[in-house]
Amino acid sequence: MIWGAIAHDLQTVLIIINGTVNTECYIHDIIKKSNVIQLANSEYGEFKWIFQQDGACPHTSKNTFTYLKQRCNVLDPWPLNSPDLNPIENLWSIMDTKLKNCNPKNEEEFIKIITNVWDTLCWKTLENLVISMYKRIYLVIERESESINSFY
């Protein structure tokens, strides 16, 4: 699994996990190792930001929710878990486009390439994706929860 987080003026390191991600792995090997909570608290202030994630089982487990709730604002459940509302989904698409012509010879080379793509993402791209949340929310409300993928 490949995991990363973005916010306005914030980007975590890319975390790559071989194998299954369960609750314990998600908390210890992803959330803690990425320092996402410390980074966001430092940038925005404690409990002045929202940790958004999809509905994957490790994200929604009781232990994960309890861990996050003690450290940041997390909504349970996130409305519809819609990729339309999560700017990271568009970022994964941008990265996919950048990786299309890469032909890594092995897993180690792939990890090196994808990490380099992540590390060299343009800050303006990240900022625009985060700012687009306002438009996404407006469009979802206007379209009564209908998909807005055709706009992005």
Quick overview of this protein structure:
By secondary structure, this protein is mainly alpha-helical. Helices cover 51% and strands 8% of the residues.
What does this 3D model show about the protein?
By secondary structure, the chain is mostly helical. It has a single domain, classed as 2-Layer Sandwich (Nucleotidyltransferase, domain 5), CATH 3.30.420.10. It is built from eight helices and six strands, in the order E-E-E-E-H-H-E-H-H-E-H-H-H-H. The strands form three sheets. It has a two-stranded antiparallel sheet with strand order 1-4. It has a two-stranded antiparallel ribbon with strand order 2-3. It has a two-stranded parallel ribbon with strand order 5-6. Helix 5 packs antiparallel against helix 7. The mean pLDDT is 89.
Total strands: the figure is: 6
How many helices? The count is 8
Q: In oligomeric terms, what are we looking at? A: single chain
In the CATH hierarchy, what is the superfamily? Ribonuclease H-like superfamily/Ribonuclease H
